[in-house]
Amino acid sequence: MKVEVDDSRCYAVGNCARHAPTVFDQNDDDGRVVLLAPDPPEREHAQVREAALRCPAAVIVLHENKSAHEE
Ligand code: SF4
């Protein structure tokens, strides 16, 4: 799985960091999403999918069949 975020559209709500805290964090200054793990391990994929579903700004894009090392 490859994860991408567009932090320019982030509402800084923090659902992502609550659902998948090892993959998403929030910037200390403005609360916007910080992507910690663009290629999360399989055991965290369910949490990442939940985080993407719960993002009110639809900022989190998942590429299920790619890794972060691929374009
Ligand atoms: S859930 Fe979405 S809007 Fe909220 S902090 Fe995460 S990326 Fe930003």
Low-confidence stretches: none
Trace the largest sheet across and list its strands.
1-4
Q: What small ligands are held by the chains?
A: iron/sulfur cluster
Major beta sheet summary: 2 strands, antiparallel
CATH topological fold name? Alpha-Beta Plaits
How much of the residues is beta strand, in percent?
A: 15-25%
Overall shape: globular
What's the pLDDT, averaged over the residues?
Answer: 94
Query: What percent of the residues sit in helical stretches (DSSP H or I)?
Result: 10-25%
How many beta strands in the DSSP annotation?
4
The whole-angstrom Rg is: 11 Å
CATH architecture: 2-Layer Sandwich
Number of helices: 2
CATH class equals: Alpha Beta
Description:
The protein contains 2 helices and 4 strands; from the N terminus they run βαββαβ. A hairpin with a 6-residue loop joins strand 2 (24-26) and strand 3 (33-35). The mean pLDDT is 94. The protein has helices at residues 15-19, 45-54; strands spanning 2-5, 24-26, 33-35, 60-63. The longest helix is centred in the C-terminal third of the chain and has 10 residues, at 45-54. Helices cover 21% and strands 20% of the residues. The strands form 2 sheets. Strands 1-4 form a two-stranded antiparallel sheet. It has a single domain (2-63), classed as Alpha-Beta Plaits. By secondary structure, the protein is of the alpha+beta class. The protein starts with a strand and ends in an 8-residue tail after the last strand. The site of iron/sulfur cluster (SF4) has 16 residues, from helix 1 and strand 2. Iron/sulfur cluster binds at residues 5, 10-16, 24, 26, 33, 55-57, 59-60.
